């Protein structure tokens, strides 16, 4: 690794951050606010997730570093603005981890992962009950819609609100499809489509499939196959836009084999 003059440690990044935000630092960095950085932070998280799904270790290293930098930047802003300290953040985390793992740091006994997550949820329900809140409150409402749906469904299921069987879930998907067909207005169709998506996410949960990751995988496959179709049409000396639907379908099948 190149000798940069800064140690390859948490302290080294802190020193760089101090320099960036100092009197002779970067004008752009010094203008940033928590709100301005939030969108970029989320983007870095997605880039890390993409690296994980691709199994690209080098990319994981880079993107995880970007995520960590944003965390440290937010800590720095909180401290500089007198809002909180890193001890506040880390102390709150320590207390939460201890409180929600009584089977590790207390006397509670669990037989495996399922009982461990049930114990975690029981503690969270107790916390919410004490504050008068809903168990669903902890799920961020600005999450991607599929991920949010799966998260709230999982919490409801762990509280005992769920279908008796997977067939009931599939029947609900079929029901929602028929309701889209029966809808007579744009507002009704939008509402019924939302219900259908929610039901499909529920099916993914029953199959232990991450709906968001599943759709990202399909998006990647579509992108790859569509790009192959465009390349094949160029190789044939024709414009993809001018092909008939039957010709495009033939290219799609060829691209499906090639990918």
UniProtKB/TrEMBL annotation:
InterPro entries: MazG-like_dom, NTP-PPase_MazG-like_C, NTP-PPase_MazG-like_N, NTP_PyrPHydrolase_MazG
Gene Ontology biological process terms from the UniProt entry: dATP catabolic process; dGTP catabolic process; dTTP catabolic process; dUTP catabolic process; response to stress; TTP catabolic process; UTP catabolic process
SUPFAM superfamilies named among the record's database cross-references: all-alpha NTP pyrophosphatases (SSF101386)
Gene3D superfamilies to which the protein is assigned, alphabetical: MazG-like (1.10.287.1080)
Pfam families xrefs: MazG (PF03819)
Molecular function per GO: nucleoside triphosphate diphosphatase activity
Signal sequence, start to end: none
NTP pyrophosphohydrolase MazG-like domain boundaries: 32-105
Protein name listed in UniProt: Uncharacterized protein YabN
């Amino acid at each position: 690794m190149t000798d940069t003059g800064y140690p390859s440690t948490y302290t080294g990044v802190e020193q760089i951050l101090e320099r960036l935000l100092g009197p002779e630092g970067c004008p752009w960095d010094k203008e940033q606010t928590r709100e301005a950085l939030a969108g970029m932070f989320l983007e870095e998280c997605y880039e890390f997730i993409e690296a994980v799904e691709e199994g690209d270790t080098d990319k994981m290293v880079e993107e995880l570093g970007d995520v960590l930098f944003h965390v440290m930047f937010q800590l720095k802003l909180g401290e500089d603005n007198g809002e909180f300290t890193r001890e506040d953040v880390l102390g709150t985390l320590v207390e939460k981890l201890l409180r929600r793992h009584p089977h590790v740091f207390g006397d509670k006994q669990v037989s495996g992962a399922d009982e461990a997550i049930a114990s975690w949820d029981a503690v969270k329900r107790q916390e919410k009950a004490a504050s008068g809140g809903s168990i669903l409150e902890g799920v961020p409402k600005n999450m991607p819609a599929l991920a949010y749906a799966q998260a709230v469904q999982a919490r409801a299921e762990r509280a005992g609100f769920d279908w008796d069987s997977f067939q009931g879930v599939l029947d609900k998907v079929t029901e929602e499809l028929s309701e889209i067909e029966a809808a007579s207005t744009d507002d009704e169709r939008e509402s019924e489509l939302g219900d259908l998506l929610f039901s499909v996410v529920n099916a993914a949960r029953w199959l232990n499939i991450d709906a968001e990751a599943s759709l990202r995988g399909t998006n990647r496959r579509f992108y790859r196959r569509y790009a192959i179709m465009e390349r094949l049409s160029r190789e044939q000396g024709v414009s993809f836009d001018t092909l008939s639907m039957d010709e495009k379908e033939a290219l799609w099948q060829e691209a499906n084999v090639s990918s």
